[in-house]
Amino acid sequence: MSASAAEPYKRSPVFDENTLPAGLRREHRTKPGVWGIIRVLEGRLRYQVLDPASEMILDPGHPGLVRPDEPHLVELLGPMRMQVEFYNQLPKL
User: Fold this and answer.
1) What is the pTM of this model?
2) DSSP characters for 42-87?
């Protein structure tokens, strides 16, 4: 990727533990060709990729990369604030 990294074409609202949509807490995926970055602004969040299976804890210093059409979900680990950025090419974390 060149020095001019891709800019997100869309950002979700900032969600907290009370406003995180139920749809993000169960299996979902981005559309083909759509990449995402889950950015935790405060607190922690468990990010689970279902195929291939993996999981990681996201926090302000550790964002999560969402690959196109990859089934995943997030799980609350307490109070948090997060936002999702959407890209049409592989973003730089």
Assistant:
1) 0.91
2) EEEEEEEEETTEEEEEEBTTB-EEE-TT--EEEEEEEEEEEEEEEE
